[in-house]
């Protein structure tokens, strides 16, 4: 397992739009991932599962990739660093 923590910067936390962007990222790249928040685990390919975590702004979540993604984990986490840093580009006006 390969893990990394990310801070949610979106106002309102991981609401519908950022959750959708995050799940879309995993689905379109055919990456199996889990997200963990407060000891609850959900699948990364489900917007509803991500929403169910109820992650507020400025809280950390952990993204877990299976060891089979070891070769691409650095690139995946770099992509996710950008998405999290920019609030998934959904709260900008």
Topology overview:
Blueprint: E1 2-7, H1 16-28, E2 33-37, E3 40-43, H2 47-52, E4 60-65, H3 73-85
Antiparallel strand pairs: 1-4, 2-3, 2-4
Summary tags:
3 helices; 93 residues; single chain; 34% helix; alpha+beta; 4-stranded antiparallel β-sheet; Histidine-containing Protein, Chain: A
Total domains: 1
The proportion of residues in beta strands is 15-25%
Q: How many DSSP H or I helices? A: 3
| CATH H-level superfamily title | HPr-like
Which percent range fits the helix content?
A: 25-40%
Q: Residue-averaged pLDDT, rounded? A: 95
Give the C-alpha Rg: 12 Å
Brief rundown of the structure:
By secondary structure, the chain is of the alpha+beta class. It has helices spanning about 15-30, 45-50, 75-85, and strands at about 1-5, 35, 40-45, 60-65. It has one domain (about 1-90): 2-Layer Sandwich (Histidine-containing Protein, Chain: A), CATH 3.30.1340.10.
């Amino acid at each position: 397992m390969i893990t990394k923590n990310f801070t949610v910067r979106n106002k309102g936390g991981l609401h519908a739009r950022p959750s959708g962007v995050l799940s879309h990222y995993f689905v379109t790249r055919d990456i199996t991932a889990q997200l963990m928040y407060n000891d609850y685990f959900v699948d990364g390919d489900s917007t509803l599962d991500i929403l169910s975590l109820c992650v507020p702004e400025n809280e950390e979540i952990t993204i877990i990739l299976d060891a089979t993604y070891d070769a691409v984990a650095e690139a995946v986490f770099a992509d996710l660093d950008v998405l999290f840093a920019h609030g998934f580009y959904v709260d900008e006006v």
